[in-house]
Design goal:
CATH topology: Dihydrofolate Reductase, subunit A
Distance between the termini: 22 Å
Strand order of the largest sheet: 6-5-4-3-7-1-8-11-10
Oligomer: single chain
Helix content: 10-25%
Number of strands: 11
Shape: globular
Number of helices: 6
Bound molecules: NADP nicotinamide-adenine-dinucleotide phosphate
CATH superfamily: Dihydrofolate Reductase, subunit A
Structural class: alpha/beta
Number of domains: 1
Largest sheet: 9 strands, mixed
């Protein structure tokens, strides 16, 4: 199973402002992202992204089929009124929870039409989740953030590729969400090594950088 992380960030490495504004991509870049979605079996995001952005995670800017949606949500907090759950009967949706999720929430999520996968004791065990997805026949998974999920996927060595669209904008703010959050490494050498595969430029001046993600210590 191939796992690709995609994100849009400002030149200072932020994927959203401190208040949660993540309107970074140009229309041309959104088209690229939607093409990637259409070529993926599933799109995955963390629960904070759902709570802040209320995304649909569908294919709209290009023609193509909608991928399944996978939300990493330990406690089963996803609101019933979220666009994801409101459309879960029509579009395949997996909510990955941990043992922290209450039975009542699991029942509520299932009633909305989503499949619930329980993996991990505290946070979602991503290795177990990815194994489940692989066994379920998923071949291409697109991880669309946010920063905490990006960290876990990279740190666990689960990502094959990283695609970052660098916009000619500056967000600033030490509380703004960066491309990769989590605990971070003590030394740069401990992080995964990236190999630049391709660089593209959009008319809006974004640089789309595509990297292969290597192993790390
Ligand atoms: N520019 C872009 O491309 C882009 C893309 C996506 C999002 N964003 C922005 O990013 C922000 C949200 O990012 P974020 O970093 O705060 O959160 P996030 O990565 O969307 O979600 C993180 C949450 O997922 C849950 N989780 C469960 N298991 C996990 C695991 N093993 N590893 C990591 N997370 C796990 C945790 O909440 P529980 O403990 O409750 O489960 C965790 O706090 C929003 O402002 C959004 O707009 C930007």
């Amino acid at each position: 199973m191939k796992v690709t992380i995609n994100a849009a960030m400002t030149i200072d490495g932020k994927i959203a402002t401190a208040s949660g504004d993540s309107a970074i991509s140009s229309k041309e870049d959104w088209k690229r992202v939607h093409k990637m979605r259409a070529a993926s079996d599933a799109v995955m995001v963390g629960i904070s992204t759902v709570l802040v952005d209320d995304p649909r995670l569908t294919v709209r800017h290009v023609r193509g089929r909608n991928p399944a949606r996978i939300i990493v949500d330990s406690k089963g907090r996803i609101p019933s009124r979220s666009r994801i759950l409101r459309s879960a009967h029509e579009q395949k949706t997996v909510i990955a929870v941990s043992e922290q999720a209450k039975e009542a929430d699991i029942i509520r999520i299932k009633k909305a039409g989503a499949l619930v996968v329980v993996a991990g004791r505290d946070t979602v065990d991503l290795k177990a989740l990815f194994l489940f997805l692989k066994k379920a026949g998923f071949k291409n998974v697109l991880v669309e953030g946010g920063g905490e999920l990006n960290w876990s996927v990279l740190d666990l060595g689960l990502a094959d590729e990283l695609v970052v669209s660098v916009a000619p904008r500056i967000a600033g703010g030490r509380l703004a969400t960066t491309l990769v959050e989590g605990d971070g490494y003590d030394r740069i050498s401990q992080g995964p090594k990236l190999a630049l595969m391709r660089v593209e430029k959009t008319k809006a001046g974004e640089l789309v950088l595509r990297y292969r993600v290597g192993k790390h210590t």
